[in-house]
Amino acid sequence: MSTIIHDIEVLKAKTSKISEIDFNNLKFGHVFSDHMLECDFKNGEWEAPKVVPYQPITLDPSAKIFHYGQSVFEGMKAYKDADGKVWLFRPLDNFKRLNISSKRLAIPELPENYFMDGLKALLKVDEDWIPEKEGSSLYIRPFVFASGNGFHASPADEYKFIICTAPSGAYFSGEVKVLIEEKYSRSANGGVGFAKAGGNYAGQFYPTQLAVEKGYQQVIWTDDTSHEYIEEAGAMNIFVRIDDTLVTAPTSDRILDGITRKSIIELAKSENIPVEVRKLSVKEVVEAAQNGSLKEMFGAGTAAVISPISGFGYKDNDYELPKLTDDSYASFLKKRITDIQTNKVEDPFGWRMEVK
Ligand SMILES: Cc1ncc(COP(=O)(O)O)c(C=O)c1O
Questions:
Q1: Does the predicted TM-score (pTM) go above 0.90?
Q2: How far is the CA of 203 from the centre of ligand 1 (A)?
Q3: Which atom of ligand 1 is nearest to the CA of 261?
């Protein structure tokens, strides 16, 4: 028996797994809610999405996702406030970015109502899965991939759009030490770096494994031509604070246009924190670390929100960042942004959207 929520057909799971979940000890993206949204592209159009029980999907071995990597995704979160109201943060930006990514990978773009109404219906059905605990949220993973078959290296004729959700705790635990990359690149001019394409992440895993073996948790990617300019991290944009100025690299076709990044830039400006969006050389950061003007370095992204970096490695040298103080930009901006996301304070920017 199906019901309709927000114009979306809902087929409910017969049983719920929710009683098996320890909401006080959630890892990141490890357990999945009872339902998912599923939507197929066939015969040249997107069919109406449906909420169905969370379940495995069957694909033909010749499905083009396996061979040509046509796959894009998004990462967003739903929050529950003290009154049990459910909130999303700038969800239309995720929708638009998904379509920007799709276009670059020759994947058909989605209609806005399928994404937004589908997401709202899914959140309504799995409302009990949205954690209430401070620092936890429901991580949302929309993705689109080539389900159509064939060994011809050309775009598929069929695609699947799915949204799954995972009640999640913190993304990183403990200090984050990063290695500034001198050899490998995650993206190049004219490439797909600005898209959230699955293959961008596959390409990062091996260099990141090498960094992990050396004792770092993450790689900071530099520009592919000279490796002299800081671009971004694996799943985060990067900010540094030199004296009192916050600096971050401009977006380009090599860098993901992060929603957290642009929110931080706007928030910082509104708080009269000097912000510079400009090329940031590794040389400048190393010199600032040496002369003591490098006060902070942090990653910014939906998963980790703001993740302070405790030190970085470059050309076989290690540089430590000062210990975080109560007046650090990282702590201040993280509190400002999470307070807005979780409906604890006014949202003068109009970023928050209630899900009813
Ligand atoms: C490569 C990359 N850079 C930056 C980000 C941060 O983007 P956002 O703040 O929109 O999550 C992400 C995560 O989505 C990412 O995967």
A1: yes
A2: 16
A3: 9
